[in-house]
Amino acid sequence: MRRIIEFGTTPDDLGPRQFGVAATAGRRRSLGLPWPAKLAPKPAPLANEPDTSDPLPRADVLVVTWTRDEMKALADVFTPGIDPSKRWYRYDRKFEDHLPSIRNGAPARLARRLGSYHPALVGKRTVVCFKSELHMNQDGVERDEGKATLPVADLLGQLIGEVAPSLVITVGTAGGTFADHELGDVVVTRAARFELTKEFRNQPYAGKTYKSGFEVPTARLDDALRLMKVHRAELAEPDFLPPTKRYLGPDGVPPQAIPGIENDPDIKIDGRDFKAFLPMLTTDFFEFGTSANRLDKKACGVEMGDAVLGLVAKQLGATAPDWLIVRNVSDPVINADLPLSPHNMQTHWAVWFYEEYGYWTSINSAIVAWAMIAA
Asked: H-helix or E-strand containing 366?
């Protein structure tokens, strides 16, 4: 999981916000997306340079993401032209207060901050995009058996208090649970469930499901699907060949390549287009859907943090904002016939899919997050 979180990280990501020539070198790509009139997302830089310990600005919507590839995709959609590694604002407010709850070696300790952020506009809606350095799976200090600290919950409460949003969206990658959910599909759900077997297994929230009363707006879903198809070719899987030419057929000729799959991204609401109120499954270990574990019976996707937002909303009670989960399928359901030993080929392929496609699948979930805000 650490490898996925930090995949592609550079010294710029860990350093301070940059200015001048260094900040504009190697500018971010332009996605060339044909946005509806007056609804193209655009960056909204702060009038005055904030200190890293300043509170976040207020906004209508708070969008939180988790890994570097997810951050790059979110930036290219919501703050186009701005390299988040160099130009997003750094945020370390009350970092020292959080530090005792963060284990040694966690990403936040390496970065010496809680996250990075940048304001944006979608029409008249104000948005704060935030990349967290805290992660449920990476931070916990186990003080009692099965009861580790959860500093990311404190962080989410802190962010909500400062931004005062009417809606919080957590966005990013997830493992697919349905066999027919393709690479790059986006799952939108209003529920999350903890499935905890490691350092959080004895916490009172273990096994709990949280639901949001938010009514999913659908007016911009057709626009989102049209935008998602612009870069559909980036989701095409390569032809499959054996790893060496020693895998010969009975006639001594290498077998023909298995043609790659041309994925066609789609949007799934609550897992099955409003037909099943399925939660996102939040685990404290690296779990992914396989053809044998049948996670589709439990959830519309699997990842490692979304239920924390549901927990925080529950704790906030009547003052909690609406919340929504928007996750892309960065690794489809993995073939359970692949061997687990002596080398775990199932995990190998799950990680390979993320590293190969995580940025482009995250473009899709960022687009769907835009559709939720624009509508």
From this structure: helix 345-374
CA-to-CA distance for 364 and 232, rounded, in angstroms?
10
Q: Please give the Cα distance from 92 to 113 (Å, whole number).
A: 4
- Ordered domains of the chain (ranges, CATH): 2-8+27-238+258-374 (3.40.50.1580)
Closest by Cα among 114, 108, 107 to 93: 114
Q: Which residues pair with 323 in a beta bridge?
A: 168
Of the candidates 274, 137, 144, the residue with the CA atom closest to the CA atom of residue 194? 137
Q: Rounded to whole angstroms, how far apart are CA atoms 245 and 21?
A: 49
- B/e letters for 177-195, b = 16+ CB within 10 Å, e = fewer, are bbeebbbbbbbbbbbbbbb
Say how far apart CA 31 and CA 286 lie, in whole Å. 31
189 near 280, Cβ under 8 Å? yes
Average of pLDDT values for 152-165?
98
* Tens of pLDDT, residues 211-262: 999 999 999 999 999 999 999 999 999 998 888 877 877 777 777 888 999 9
Q: Is 230 helix (H, G, I), strand (E, B) or coil?
A: helix
Q: Which two tokens stand for residue 331?
A: 């690794």
pLDDT at 21: 56
| Neighbour tally for 154: CB within 10 Å | 18
Give me the residue label for tokens 């992660």. Answer: 135
